[in-house]
Amino acid sequence: MKEIKIGSAVSTAAGIAKGRLKVGDLPDGRPVEIPVLIGRGAKDGPTLWLHGCVHGNEYCGTFIIHQLFRDLNTDSLSGTVVALPALNLTAFRKNQRMSPFEGYGGGDLNRCFPGKADGSLTEQMAHAIYSELKQHADFLIDFHTAMTADVRWALFANAEGEVGKKAEGLARAFGYNSTLPAPTDILGGSALMTAAKDGIPSYIVEAGGKGPAFTPEAVADGAERLANVLRHLEMLPGAVTDYGPLTYFSNFAWVMSTRGGLFQRAVQCGDRIEEGTVLGQYYDLHGGLDGEAVSPHAGVVLAIHPGPLMANGETLIHIGLDPREV
Ligand SMILES: [Zn+2]
After folding, report:
1. Which of 91, 92, 93, 69 is nearest to 81 (CA)?
2. Is the whole-model pTM more than 0.85?
3. What is the Å distance from ligand 1's center to 42 Cα?
4. Ligand 1: distance of its center to the CA of 58 in Å?
5. pLDDT tens digit string along 260-305?
6. Distance 301 CA to ligand 1 centre (A)
7. Pick from 30, 79, 207, 221: CA 20 to 30 A from residue 152's CA?
């Protein structure tokens, strides 16, 4: 079998190879080395690239990837699953979204692809990761979370031709109902759009909330849907589950809070809302009702602020616009 080498993970035979990929240096000179898993099938087939925690505190995807690998029988696998379950390890360790050590730069790894070999730490990380991704991946699935444990939505890079069609195939096989066929002029610097522009069909899963806000059920369900993607790609044997029609959006809208207060949400992720739907209540510190948040748009709730404390300018809600069943 042809050798597949990503950092110190080296695969020359069917089975699971583990290792680490160096993506940068810490200020104290120690290397930043992120975990790599290579699940190699006994038979030939495509390479599916999975990664989680491009935003450091989005741990649900890490657990979904781990579960897939615990369940993976490489004797019946055709092709290769490459997984980097903790991409932005510097942010992962600190339970935060963005990279530390970035000064005024921001440090959003998912806006830095394809990266820069001589850039900031986060740009160097993106470069080291993307060089491998571009070389090996036939398909990309990128795991994210939003704000609360009930988040379940997805987006695929709606590129021209086969790249977009194959990405839509990933979306149908994973089967999260709320799905955005994402126009390729949004999310610049994301792994999703960078890979799509290089001809790699790409899909993002948004499952659960940041930090500990996710459930074992979300992990088990996500791992089963991921296995269904492998069946759809004919990388694993077995019947492909049909999750039925999906709800597509034309785009999404972020709505920020213009005030602060104690906040209690009144809607759940996946709910249909209208312009004027009450999204939640504000309370003052004496316990009195102090106003309502209402939606400026109709659509479907993709993410909603978890409360209990709302600050001015925080994300109140993320709405999928113009829902239609496809
Ligand atoms: Zn994210």
Report:
1. 69
2. yes
3. 33
4. 6
5. 999 999 999 999 999 999 999 999 999 999 999 999 999 999 999 9
6. 17
7. 79
